[in-house]
Amino acid sequence: MRDAAYGSLLRNARRQLHAQIAEALEAQSPEIVESQPELLAHHYGEAAIADKAIGYWHRAGKLSAAKSAETEAIAQLRRGLSLLDALPENRERDQLELDIHVTLTAALMAGKGYANPEVVVALERANRLVTETGAVGTPVHFSVLWGLWVSTFAGGGIAAALEHATNLLSVAQSQPSSGPLLVGHSIVALSLMRSGDYRAALAHLETAVSLYRPDEHRDDAFRYGQDFGVSAFGYLSLALWHRGYPEQSARAADRALAYSSELGHAHTLAHTPCDGRPGRGLRPRCRHRLRLLQRERGARE
Predict the structure, then answer these.
(1) How far apart are CA 223 and CA 217, in angstroms?
(2) 235: which residues sit within 8 A by CB, 6+ positions away?
(3) Which of 6, 164, 189, 262 could in theory staple to 204 by disulfide, Cβ–Cβ 3.0 to 4.6 A?
(4) Is the C-alpha dihedral spanning 98, 103, 104, 109 positive or negative?
């Protein structure tokens, strides 16, 4: 009966009802606006108010990504992108598309892998939009540069990846914010490690961890798909181990675990390498994950 009644409404009347519902939620239910932006996105979409719908789909995608619900985030962000044709062609529209593509890229990387073809397509579009919107040197630009690096790195192009990383670090050195520098030193180090140059990598990682401020850089976990301070401590642990400093390696690993536990971001935790150390059993991050699994199993039982 409900579906029949809804289907009998004229299009304009249906749109007006959806708009009234969305406006009422905004005015009277701020807790729903914060916790369920996809509900408002749906109603504004059905009301053909595209700009509002797109904004709420973006908020919903970011909220899902923050909970590591990558499948939901991808679907929500694509719903927002599908409505962009309803907006006039201008810089504001392109900027909105760029912002959504950056969030989508991070969700796709976490959900499908760095070198996935869908990631590459999203990055290529975002890179064009950076130029078209004049966003060169902005945080969005750095997230796109990082994406280009990581997709190349994960695809096995080590020399090209080092070139991308060096380019990002060069641009970052002209910026007042420490976030891009943290990212730049981290990815240069990881590229050097992949090519076997642990000595040079160690210097970059020591610089990276010295720059890390958890409160200042926390949002980067959702721009890049991982918290780079946590990752830097994890890779520092590996570099120290390969350079012959096992105790320092263990301390760096413990720092990575402590920060990742505070953050509560699953993909960041997954980024800290987990393997055995001769004579020491499981590495700290392995023991931590084992404790988490045991705790979850006990809760279920």
Answers:
(1) 10
(2) 186, 189, 190, 193, 201, 205, 273
(3) 189
(4) positive
